[in-house]
Specification:
Blueprint (H helix, E strand, L loop, with lengths): L6 H4 L1 H9 L7 H11 L2 H20 L8
């Protein structure tokens, strides 16, 4: 979640909701690392290959949409 001090992030209702949902304060990078370690090796290999292909498509499209 991105907190940019925009009005939608600074309302009383939003602040209260965020206080009530402290589980969202776990850094996503840490969460992903923990989950990634639990994946079967063959699945993580396939995901890495898929991610590489997706990144190359975005680079080739110069940031434009890669889906037709």
């Amino acid at each position: 979640m991105v907190m940019d001090n925009g009005s939608k992030h600074t309302t009383k209702l939003t602040k209260q909701w965020l206080q009530d949902h402290t589980d969202l304060k776990i850094p996503l990078e840490r969460l992903y690392k923990e989950k990634w370690k639990k994946l079967p090796k063959d699945m993580s290999t396939k995901l890495e290959a898929s991610n590489s292909k997706s990144l190359m498509a975005v680079i080739t499209a110069k940031g434009a949409s890669t889906r037709q």
